[in-house]
Amino acid sequence: MTAALLPMLLLTGCGETMLDGPQTYSPAEVRQAAENMRTWPSLETTEQQVTTAIQQIADSASAINPTLQWQWRRDRNSSGTCSGAYEDTDGWYVTTQLLVSDTPIPDTDWPQILQSATQIARSFGMDQVGVLIDRPGHHDVSFGSPDGNTLRFATFKTAVLDATTGCRYKQADLDKPHE
Predict the structure, then answer these.
(1) Are 50 and 96 in contact (CB under 8 A)?
(2) Are 147 and 125 contacting, i.e. CB atoms less than 8 angstroms apart?
(3) What is the pLDDT of residues 9-24, one digit of tens each?
(4) I need a labelling partner for 130 at 20 to 30 A (CA). Which of 8, 12, 39, 151 fits?
């Protein structure tokens, strides 16, 4: 496994890392996590939003460099096991399909494409930017939101976009009367 992938693999769907180790959360912290999720869009809406962000970034990159042709790969993944204080809730998260261009993004286009990607990610609330790798021919950035959504954008031998939603209730759970 490359060092570039390690930080992304350590991130979970709710903004915590697997390296945080086992931690016990008080009933008050779990209740607060559950209340937070009641104020956020549903899992289905959030998945649609992060998928739209990915597609807009790909479209923008292709407008800058038409040699970038994007295809959806890998199945999406959904899990009912969130981390942190969200672990003891009925929350779920989704990891989207990969949107891949077999043509990597040239360094000459990277700054403009990254600027556009940053603006698009911000428009979807993902304004926390993390640069994992930034060297010639190899770039890897993530965009995160305070409520746990994370979008990854990288280029090396290919260009790749994917996202993981923060922990969310499914719409059916939001529609149930609040206890």
Answers:
(1) yes
(2) yes
(3) 334 344 444 445 557 8
(4) 39
Q: Give dist(CA 38, CA 95) in Å, integer.
A: 20
Reported pTM = 0.85
Q: Which residue has the tokens 């399909």?
A: 97
CB 86 within 8 A of CB 79: no
CA angle 36, 37, 41 (to 5 degrees): 120
Q: Is 144 helix (H, G, I), strand (E, B) or coil?
A: strand
CATH fold group of domain 42-175: TBP-like (3.30.2030)
How many helices, marked H, and strands, marked E, lie in the chain? Answer: 5, 8
- Which DSSP symbol is given to 17? B
139: tokens are 């770039």
